[in-house]
Amino acid sequence: MPINHLSLPTGPCNFALMRDFYLATLQPLGFKIYKQVDGHFVGLQAPHAGPDFWLHCGGQDFEPVDPKLSADENLKTRGRSHVAFDVGSRKEVDEFYAAALKAGGVCNGAPGERSYAKGYYAAFVLDPLGNNIEAVHFNPLWLRAIKAAPSVVMLVLGIAVGHFGFGYFA
To answer: What positions does the domain VOC occupy (predicted)?
Structure first.
């Protein structure tokens, strides 16, 4: 079963910083605010989707990333979570990456094809609190076939019902 939503803690002092970072970073992917209570939580949603990404102030403040350190050094002392956003194209990966860096993210892997699987194109940034955020476009032939399967089944079923049930296509 897929995940319905995810919420990252920010700590009270970093809530506004994190909200602003994610609004800027996810804007190229079409994310908008679904619901917000200032200083407490914000829910974001992509077009034609439910609110699946949330930030909440949590009860503890976290130390922000140190821009003078490399991503690896920041991850050793701050890394908390990894979140990957599935995007529709390589262009969206590139736009996500550029927006994240402009919003203050730290590079943790420039856009490019990864060795994990043929066609896995991704970019990674650390958000202001050291969470590893990824945008990925991965659409191999086998995955496209799985996504298309319900449509093909419905088409075949529709033809069969039309042919046998109503005498169409006779």
So the answer is: 2-138
